[in-house]
Amino acid sequence: MADWIPVVIIFMPLLAAVLVFTQTVRGVAATLATGGFLLIGLVALGSEVSGQGPWLTWQPGGWPVPLGLRWQADSFSVVMLAMVSLVAVSGGLFATGFLPTALPSAERHFWTLWLFTWAAMNSLLLAADLFNIYVGLELMALAAVGLISLSRETEALQAAMRYFLVTLFGSMLYLMGVALLYGQYGMLDQAALAAVIEHGLANVVAAVLITLGLLIKTALFPVHFWLPSAHGKAPVPVSALLSAVVVAVCFFIMYRLWSGLFFVFLADQPAMVLGVVGLASIFWGGLQALRQQSLKMIVAYSTIAQFGYVMLVFPVFAAGGATVLAWHGAVMLVLAHGLAKASLFFAAGCLHIAYDHDRIRELPGGVGRLGWVWLAFALAAASIVGLPPSGGFVGKWRLLQAAVLGEAWFWAVVMVLGALLTGAYMYRGLETAWRPAAPAEAVRTVPGIMVAVTLFCAVGAVAIGFLAVPLESFLGRTFEPLPIAGG
Amino acid sequence: MTAFYLILAGVILAMAFHALMTRPNLLRKLMALNIFTSAVFLFLVTLARMAEPLDPIPHAMVLTGIVVTVSTTAVGLALLVRLYRRSGSLTLQSTDDD
After folding, report:
1. Which among A208, A309, A329, B78 could bridge A399 via Cys, Cβ 3.0 to 4.6 Å?
2. Does B75 sit within 8 Å of A142, measured CB to CB?
3. Under 8 Å between Cβ of A15 and A114
4. Contact A115/A124 with Cβ under 8 angstroms?
């Protein structure tokens, strides 16, 4: 199989970041070029996965498995990589309008950190080795901390500091769990470990530590407390990247581990615990979102609730019945949430640029370009809530189907109630658009590129619903856990 | 003898965790995080010693981990200095909502 593909996918953004930092290339150009190269890489990877799949592995160093590091990819990795690239390029285009107006001093460092975050995410999506994932998590965390603190306002610095402490603590818990596993088996490769892992106290502790570390990074109740300030106070393109994809990548790793390495433990209690964490996140995040006064904070809290929703895939898995449907549902939900959430943050950013605030009580409805922004907000909100025919609908519908087929009635009820709550807080944001209000003059005109990107992401989130059939056939009709043998 | 080091790693881990959770001062939190990391590294190195023959991989992991920790500490300190210059305080205010 083609060895150049993972190299391009991981090293293009890394190279671009270095070139931008040394001021060899302009940030926008580097981001767009990286997007172009990644498109080629992803098309090649996609055709390889559908041709020779379901799993591809590479051994870049040439060492056999217990010692060497591997990269791995399946259809989920491909669609995640595609979503990351889409959001990273969209966010970059949005930033070309946003930075000169809102953050002129931060331009160079923004692009460098942006590309570093991108590279870290790509390496995490391909990593097969547990220690490799640790290094990727640290790289992603450091770049993200830098991005949050770009504005140098006290609030942003505080949010960055809190995120820094919390996420590094999460990394340490993860590393401790990895060390325990290594102490048992002397291996770090996910697939190799999955072949030999068995029930035992040390393994349970390791699973708990690793999961806790990743839950912290995915910001699920009760370890979600850092997210609203970090995502709410960061510059808008950064909030979009963090909420749409960085959190999704952390969930992706958790999903990988629980559907592969820890799958033997999943039945019964662990699945219940993960489900309860999801349930608590849905309701806590939703209720907090209902209380917020600014658009950006509503959107930030909804991330906690929506990832709580995705977590319900684990109890549905454990219920059996329709594993494939549950898997498809979770993948669709993560993809649609990524695009919709990016669009919602972009929309909040456009309104902030236009009126210098985003307090929902004082925002007037939109006309002209801002009408398009509100349209994008409405489309993206529809996808988050799960109205047909959007991508969010297909995701939630598949998950619900799987819960019903597995006769997990409790979780089916949770899903329906969660969708109602989502509808309530998204309506609060949207209500502004058609409530009669005193006409207010926009302080600034919003650059066209920002509006275009906002609308593009919203349409993308809805379009995933129409592309559901080809997407599901690409994901495959069977649920394949990790291959055990080395490739 | 290795049991001693394992217990030591556990004790240091618990102390660092306690400090990280209870101390409001950010510099202390940062140091606690560093000590926490050291405890994890001590655990890894002890694992290497327990293996027969000596296992070099945990050493490689710890070396990589040390490099990562140096970078994270640098970022943390830079952030701390900037926050102190900006707000004159070394504690985090709890600002949950707006």
Report:
1. A329
2. yes
3. no
4. no
List the Cα angle A232/A227/A117 in 5-degree steps.
85
**Interface A:B, Cβ pairs < 8 A:** 98
Domain positions in chain A are 267-480
ipTM: 0.95
Contact A181, A265 (CB under 8 A): no
User: Distance between CA A464 and CA A82 in Å, rounded?
Assistant: 13
Burial A440-456 (b: 16+ CB within 10 A, else e): eebeeebbeebbbbbbb
| Contact list, A184 vs chain B (CB under 8 Å) | none
Q: What is the pLDDT of residue A244?
A: 94
A361 pLDDT band, cuts 50/70/90, is confident
B34 near A CB under 8 A: no
- Closest chain A residue to B10 measured between Cα atoms? A176
Provide the CATH topology of domain B2-87.
Answer: Helix Hairpins (1.10.287)
**Domain ranges (residues) in chain B:** 2-87
Max Cα–Cα distance, chain B, nearest Å: 58
Cβ of B52 under 8 Å from any chain A Cβ? no
Distance in angstroms (rounded) separating the CA atoms of residues A103 and A89: 19
The closest of A168, A32, A36, A164 to A111, measured between CA atoms, is A32
User: What kind and span of H or E run contains A71?
Assistant: strand A71-73
Question: Tell me, what's the pLDDT at A136?
Answer: 96
